[in-house]
């Protein structure tokens, strides 16, 4: 079966969090980074939101240039950019929650940065099911964090990453394997990951502006011109990438969750889902190389998106499906009565996670 790979990229992540958390910033240009000090500051821009990007401000730009662009906008009658130092501990906390959502929905995730990750969707069995899962994931992030993410789906990491960048913000681009070459052909050569300013300038000097133009070069031509990187580039120009999605972290917990098709408080339906989730968690636990756990965490999300987690820690540690199910069920039962759900609100989602792994 062909691979199906996703790439998630949060939209202007740091700036979007600041705009979300401070109502008076809504709709204004926001720049997170070094202190501009009235145009005399040192350092660079970490992130600019899309309103600030319309001024020409972008990540890694010297903060002095960002300041000048903001002042130019003011002279045109536009609002001045708001420069913020950033709260990176908070950004990391929010990133961890988003990545936890992703890992709960997909068995294999490769986090690339605080706001970006690849994930393998091949287990879904079809592009259609992969797309449905990604749409649910985007909505989960929107509802839980009130932030938007752009997602690309493709036959490999290369295509997925390029696709996620095409319709930002809040984008969603799907490229099937049969369409990969045609998808890349009309794109600017700079869209190919790894093509920086120098390589772009080289191609432009030789009349090459689009991917389709660069395909006129043979594999040996590019090797002669660019060395080993030329061989890699040749494969990318034709949409080929065999690099795997691999975990880059040591698991501290293993979990999964499921959103119901219809909000419900039917104990039979929810109980069946709980049994399935427990079995899935145990399989993933073993796949991670662990065999025992001490803490069981149950998460429920109500129809109004209010989310609650409850945990139980055992001594000695647990290891069987029956033990996991018993602990998870004990945590779940109060949500069917006045102990945790006095208004009898239906549930939208339940999740099971194990921690303190051995």
Provide a descriptive summary of the structure in words.
The protein has helices at 13-21, 50-53, 63-75, 88-105, 127-145, 157-164, 180-184, 197-205, 211-214, 219-226, 228-237, 267-287, 321-332, and strands at 5-10, 30-33, 45-48, 82-84, 109-113, 116-120, 149-154, 172-174, 253-264, 293-302, 307-318, 347-357. With 358 residues, it is α+β, with helices and mostly antiparallel strands. The protein has four domains: 5-12 and 88-180, Alpha-Beta Plaits; 15-84, MutS, DNA mismatch repair protein, domain I (3-Layer(aba) Sandwich), CATH 3.40.1170.60; 187-237, Orthogonal Bundle (DNA polymerase, domain 1); 253-357, DNA polymerase, Y-family, little finger domain (Dna Ligase, domain 1, 2-Layer Sandwich), CATH 3.30.1490.100. The strands form three sheets. It has a five-stranded mixed β-sheet with strand order 5-6-1-7-8. A four-stranded antiparallel β-sheet has the order 9-12-10-11. A hairpin with a 4-residue loop joins strand 10 and strand 11 (307-318). Helix 4 (88-105) runs antiparallel to helix 5 (127-145) and helix 12 crosses helix 13 (321-332). It is globular. The two termini are 34 Å apart. The model has no long low-confidence stretch (mean pLDDT 92).
């Amino acid at each position: 079966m062909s691979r199906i790979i996703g790439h998630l990229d949060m939209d202007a992540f740091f700036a979007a969090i600041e705009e979300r958390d401070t109502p008076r910033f809504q709709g204004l240009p926001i720049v997170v980074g070094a202190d501009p000090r009235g145009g005399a500051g040192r350092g660079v821009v970490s992130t600019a939101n899309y309103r600030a990007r319309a001024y020409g401000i972008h990540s890694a730009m010297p903060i002095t240039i960002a300041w000048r662009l903001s002042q130019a906008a003011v002279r045109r009658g536009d609002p001045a950019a708001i420069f913020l130092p950033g709260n990176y501990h908070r950004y990391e906390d929010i990133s961890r929650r988003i990545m936890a959502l992703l890992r709960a929905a997909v068995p294999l995730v490769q986090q690339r940065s605080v706001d970006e990750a690849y994930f393998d969707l091949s287990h879904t069995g079809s592009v259609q099911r992969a797309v449905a899962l990604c749409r649910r994931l985007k909505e989960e992030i929107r509802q839980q964090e009130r932030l938007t993410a752009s997602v690309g789906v493709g036959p490999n990491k290369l295509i997925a990453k390029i696709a996620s960048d095409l319709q930002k913000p809040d984008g969603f681009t799907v490229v099937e394997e049969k369409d990969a070459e045609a998808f890349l052909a009309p794109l600017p050569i700079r869209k190919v990951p790894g093509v920086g300013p120098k390589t772009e300038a080289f191609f432009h000097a030789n009349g090459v502006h689009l991917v389709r133009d660069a395909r006129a070069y043979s594999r040996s031509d590019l090797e002669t011109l660019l060395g080993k990187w030329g061989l890699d580039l040749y494969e990318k120009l034709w949409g080929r990438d065999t690099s795997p999605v691999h975990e880059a972290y040591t698991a501290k917990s293993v979990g999964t969750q499921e959103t119901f098709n219809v909000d419900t408080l039917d104990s039979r339906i929810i109980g069946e889902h709980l049994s399935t989730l427990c079995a899935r968690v145990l399989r993933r636990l073993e796949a991670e190389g662990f065999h025992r756990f001490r803490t069981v965490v149950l998460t429920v999300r109500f129809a109004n998106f209010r989310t609650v987690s409850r945990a139980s820690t055992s001594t000695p540690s647990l290891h069987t499906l029956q033990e996991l199910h018993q602990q998870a069920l004990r945590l779940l039962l109060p949500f069917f009565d006045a102990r945790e759900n006095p208004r009898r609100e239906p549930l939208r989602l339940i999740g099971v996670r194990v921690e303190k792994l051995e």
